[in-house]
Amino acid sequence: MTSRAKHKVLGKVGYNIVKILGKGAYSKVCLIVNETGKKYACKIIKKKLAGLDFIEKFVYREVEINNMIKHSNIVKVHTILESKDAIYMIMDYCRHGDLLEYIKNFGCFPEENAKNYFKQIVEAVCYLHDHDIAHRDLKCENIFLMWNNQVKLGDFGFSRSCSDGFGQKALSDTFCGSLAYAPPEILKGISYDPKMYDVWSLDEEVGEHNHSSLA
């Protein structure tokens, strides 16, 4: 249980922390409830741990992109709060956790279920690309399961626009995402098309390439 005193900003707007759902290097995700008992997930980003450069390059970009997108297969961010020490992103609570955790606990899905889930993931990615946004961190840990056989894509920490300030296509040279899902350009340290990064990661998720093909 996290001490409420450490996160007074949540209490002031009617939320209480129930438990920690997961932790990262500079953030953690908590289950929170509002005054009516409705459950949400809250990503708490510690500014001191993340560092000013990371906050400015990635976190504020994540906040901006989350404010721009709305899709049934993308985790919705309802409220964003900021204090001197932290940024709080209040979003959908996906009660069945992430895809990797579910597979580890219960095993593989039947083929028809897998097809349905993958179709939803592709629809979310197509929506992002149509809005000129790349996710750049597609992996099982960022796919979340709802109670009604719906999946939602989340964690936009490495997402970015695919155009420059003049509306021209922009390549990326940031080494980000997860090695197992990364395209060859990432491993070679050369500029890459962010949307094609997503396409490669989707391909890796369905196992059409093995890791040796990345060499």
Sum this structure up briefly.
This protein has 215 residues and is of the alpha+beta class. It has helices spanning 8-12, 47-50, 52-68, 99-106, 111-130, 184-188, 194-205, and strands spanning 16-23, 27-33, 39-46, 77-82, 86-91, 133-134, 143-145, 151-153, 160-161. The protein is built from seven helices and nine strands, in the order αβββααββααββββαα.
Description of the structure:
It is a single chain. A hairpin with a 5-residue loop joins strand 2 and strand 3 (39-46). The model is unreliable at 1-5 and 208-215 (pLDDT under 50). The chain has helices at residues 8-12, 47-50, 52-68, 99-106, 111-130, 184-188, 194-205; strands at 16-23, 27-33, 39-46, 77-82, 86-91, 133-134, 143-145, 151-153, 160-161. The strands form 3 sheets. A 5-stranded antiparallel β-sheet has the order 1-2-3-5-4. The protein is 33% helix and 21% strand. By secondary structure, it is an alpha+beta fold. The protein contains 7 helices and 9 strands; from the N terminus they run αβββααββααββββαα.
